[in-house]
Amino acid sequence: MKIAIIGASGKQGNMILKEAGTRGFEVTAIVRDKTKITDAVTIVEKDLFQLTAADLKQYDVVVDAFNAPPGKEELHQSALAHLTKIFEELPSVRLIVVGGAASLFVDPDKKVRLLDTENFPKEYYPTASNMAEAFKKLQQSSIQWTFLSPAAYFDYAGKRTGSYKLGADNLIENAAGESYISYADYAIALVDEIEKKAHIRKRFTVVGEKA
């Protein structure tokens, strides 16, 4: 299987790249600066907004691990809109998006999102709201998308346990009552989804235990 990872030099993108490489996939890193990739993979040096259908048609799955810099959070919307337009020309290629937790619901009726709650950190709101809006528009598309939301506490330094629990559109917790996932275990869940194809045109979420 041929996998391309947009933003493969970022923290999560690089962990997904490494995890996919251990499964025997043919992995390509799509980055703006090829010097940031030290892994033994094929590298395409190109900005996300310059990508075309011709660039991506050879892959079975493309992972979108793009992360907008501070002050440019709207790029979460425009970047995913650009990719959605490309994938309308690529009906046989899957797009899997590294999503955010803030658009997950916190009530059974699915009316209140995490970002709508009173104690949601204001400093994260620009990123959260733009990612949530991008997700809403993705849901309206006809492409083969999957959106994976992490737990509320997304821990880069967390251990790779190899264990996780899946949810759907609601924020979920582990046995300790925590909404937690390490970057490493998130990468495992995402690559498992590449293999299992269990959430076509669906969003799901993942929670893990602290090691």
Compact summary:
This protein has one domain (2-207): 3-Layer(aba) Sandwich (Rossmann fold). It is 27% helix and 21% strand.
Count of distinct strands? 10
Uncertain runs are: none
Rg computed from alpha carbons, rounded to a whole number of angstroms: 16 Å
What is the CATH C-level name?
Answer: Alpha Beta
Helix content: 25-40%
Distance between the termini: 31 Å
Report the mean per-residue pLDDT as an integer: 96
- Would you give the CATH topology? Rossmann fold
Q: In what order do the strands lie side by side in the largest sheet?
A: 3-2-1-4-5-6-10-8
Shape: globular
Secondary-structure class: alpha/beta
- Number of continuous helical runs: 5
Q: SSE string, helix = H, strand = E?
A: EHEEHEHEHEEEEHE
CATH architecture descriptor text: 3-Layer(aba) Sandwich
- CATH superfamily, by name, is NAD(P)-binding Rossmann-like Domain
Report the biggest beta sheet as strand number plus sense, adding barrel if it closes.
8 strands, mixed
What does this protein structure show overall?
The structure is a single chain. It contains five helices and ten strands, in the order E-H-E-E-H-E-H-E-H-E-E-E-E-H-E. The strands form two sheets. It has an eight-stranded mixed beta sheet, with helices on both faces. Strands 7-9 form a two-stranded parallel sheet. The model has no long low-confidence stretch (mean pLDDT 96). The longest helix has 15 residues, at 125-139. It has helices spanning 11-22, 53-56, 75-87, 125-139, 183-196, and strands at residues 2-6, 26-31, 42-45, 61-64, 94-98, 145-149, 153-155, 165-167, 180-182, 202-207. It has a single domain, classed as NAD(P)-binding Rossmann-like Domain (Rossmann fold), CATH 3.40.50. Strand 1 (2-6), helix 1 (11-22) and strand 2 form a beta-alpha-beta unit. It is globular. Helix 1 (11-22) crosses helix 5 (183-196) and helix 3 runs parallel beside helix 4 (125-139). With 211 residues, it is an alpha/beta fold. GO terms for molecular function: oxidoreductase activity, acting on the CH-NH group of donors, NAD or NADP as acceptor. Residues 7-194 form the NAD(P)-binding domain.
